[in-house]
Write a structure and sequence with these properties.
InterPro entries: D-isomer_DH_CS (IPR029753), D-isomer_DH_NAD-bd (IPR006140), NAD(P)-bd_dom_sf (IPR036291). The chain is α/β, with parallel strands linked by helices. It folds into 2 domains: 113 residues, NAD(P)-binding Rossmann-like Domain (Rossmann fold), CATH 3.40.50.720; 178 residues, NAD(P)-binding Rossmann-like Domain (Rossmann fold, 3-Layer(aba) Sandwich), CATH 3.40.50. Helix content is 31%, strand content 16%. The chain contains 11 helices and 13 strands. The strands form 3 sheets. An 8-stranded mixed sheet has the order 6-7-5-4-8-9-10-11, sandwiched between helices. Strands 1-2-3 form a 3-stranded parallel sheet, with no helix packed on it. Strand 1, helix 3 and strand 2 form a beta-alpha-beta unit. Helix 5 crosses helix 7.
């Protein structure tokens, strides 16, 4: 946190047990541990920080009623994870198309088994979520030769990063056309459980699901049932409803599933990048300039209003 301290602002470091005592005297809260669930119980009945920043792109853990109703400004770390996640998604698409998990399993077993693989050029990818991460994914997949479309809150044609963007009301039809469905949407009441048994039934039996958004976007039991029944060809999951993924989860042992531990955006140097984003915003705060990455607390993500609030 040297970059923050260098800005000349007094900094106090606290752990969860001391959070409630520290909040009433704080102007700004930097939630470094974005996994922590301590903030709702620690939030003061009156007063409290005027600005809360979180070291993640997702803000669903911050949007508890008392904070939503307060005048407190919320900002996120938008921009840090876009390109690393896009690279990771491209790697997953290639891993499926080129059957790399099976190759590694066969190598471990010292088995020589020739197979044919798939082309990604011309394959259709649907990116659900049109924020910066979804857009970076769209650009990477387009550059690799896939035909990309998007799904988001507002439909539009000829989007520079995602081609045709389908409104969420037409998600069912868009799912039916995709070879790869990539989830990069924020977790809101509208997106929670969006991929359920009905949505999975609309996907091609040859399609793969990639989730780098939030685990709660997918009804996990429905996904397991669809994978077991061959209703879709595979899934690559970097996020889960319960993290760490419990050892007893069937997903661990399914040959058509790639499990990774919520690491798709964590490329070398990501912690330093997170601190730099906050330090820049802290300078803006102390100078009275508009903050970046201001979250619309009603929408649940960064909206068009990027002012101080």
């Amino acid at each position: 946190m040297a970059a923050v301290e260098a800005a000349g602002t007094p900094v106090r470091y606290v752990r969860e047990p001391d959070l409630a005592a520290a909040l009433p005297g704080a102007d700004v809260l930097f939630m470094w541990d974005f996994w922590s669930g301590a903030l709702p119980a620690a939030w003061p009945a009156s007063g409290g920080p005027r600005w809360v920043h979180i070291a993640s792109a997702g803000v669903d853990r911050l949007l508890f009623p008392a904070l939503v109703e307060a005048d407190t400004v919320v900002t996120n770390s938008r921009g840090v994870f876009d390109e690393p996640i896009a690279e990771y998604v491209l790697g997953l698409v290639l891993a499926f198309a080129k059957d790399l998990p099976a190759t590694l399993r066969l190598q471990d077993a010292r088995r020589w088994r020739h197979r044919e693989t798939e082309r990604i050029t011309g394959a259709r990818a649907l990116v659900v979520g049109t924020g910066p991460i979804g857009r970076a994914i769209g650009r990477r997949l387009t550059a690799a030769g896939l035909a990309v479309s998007g799904a988001g809150r507002t439909g539009r044609a000829a989007d520079p990063d995602l081609g045709t963007v389908h409104p969420m009301e037409r998600l069912d039809a868009a799912l039916a056309e995709a070879d790869y469905v990539v989830l990069a949407a924020p977790l809101t009441e509208r997106t929670r459980d969006m991929i359920d048994a009905a949505a999975l039934a609309r996907m091609k039996p040859t399609a793969r699901l990639v989730n780098v958004g939030r685990g709660q976007l997918v009804v996990e039991d429905d996904l397991i049932a669809a994978l077991r029944a061959g209703r879709i060809a595979g899934a690559a999951l970097d996020v889960f409803r319960d993290e760490p993924l419990p050892p007893a989860s069937p997903l661990w042992g399914m040959p058509n599933v790639i499990v990774s531990p919520h690491m798709s955006g964590d490329a070398t140097g990501w912690r330093e990048d997170l601190v730099r984003v906050f330090a820049e915003n802290l300078r803006r705060w102390t100078e009275g300039r508009p903050l970046r990455n201001v979250v619309d607390k009603d929408l649940g993500y960064v909206g068009s209003n990027r002012g101080r609030g």
